[in-house]
Write a structure and sequence with these properties.
Elements: H1 14-35, E1 43-54, E2 66-68, E3 85-89, E4 94-96, E5 104-106, H2 111-114, E6 120-130
Antiparallel strand pairs: 1-6, 2-3, 3-4, 5-6
GO molecular function: hydrolase activity, acting on carbon-nitrogen (but not peptide) bonds, in linear amides
Domain AstE/AspA barrel-sandwich hybrid: 44-123
Organism: Oceanodroma tethys (Wedge-rumped storm-petrel)
């Protein structure tokens, strides 16, 4: 499956639709070339591995007590370092990220995840290597 986004529910954006079409076309092109016996050389790609879903800060009644900090909003896939602002309480207090490594948050403040108690997802950047492949046909 391919999910291209984010975009608000009920909204169709031409640029997002174009990205989806391109990635599906690349996938179909790969399948066709593979089936024709083309050899693909070894490669390394950078990926983001999901490590943890992070909820909004809540009180003892399970009520949200802080919102996404303005400096984090719209910063999907950007590095988040120890001490960087995460949340802003309704009283104006900044809640900072406390971590021992740089993470790359994504799905930040997405409406679809609010009811799932997910403010964002922490990912880490890593490299994956693939050996050469060729169809055996």
């Amino acid at each position: 499956g391919v999910e291209v986004g984010p975009q608000p529910q009920g909204v169709v954006r031409a640029d997002t639709l174009d990205k989806m079409r391109k990635i599906v076309k690349h996938g179909l092109d790969f399948v066709q070339l593979f089936n024709e016996g083309k050899e693909f050389l070894p490669c390394t790609i950078e990926v983001f591995k999901i490590m943890e879903k992070v909820d909004y800060p809540r009180n003892k009644n399970d009520e949200v007590i802080a919102i996404i900090h303005p400096k984090l909003q719209d910063q999907d896939w950007q590095p988040l370092n120890n001490g960087d602002p995460l949340f802003l309480t309704l009283d104006g207090e900044v809640i900072a990220y406390k971590g021992d490594c740089t993470v790359y948050p994504t799905f930040i403040n997405e409406a679809a995840y609010y009811e799932k108690k997910q403010a964002f997802v922490k990912t880490v950047k890593m490299k994956l290597s693939a050996k050469h492949i060729r169809s055996s046909v």
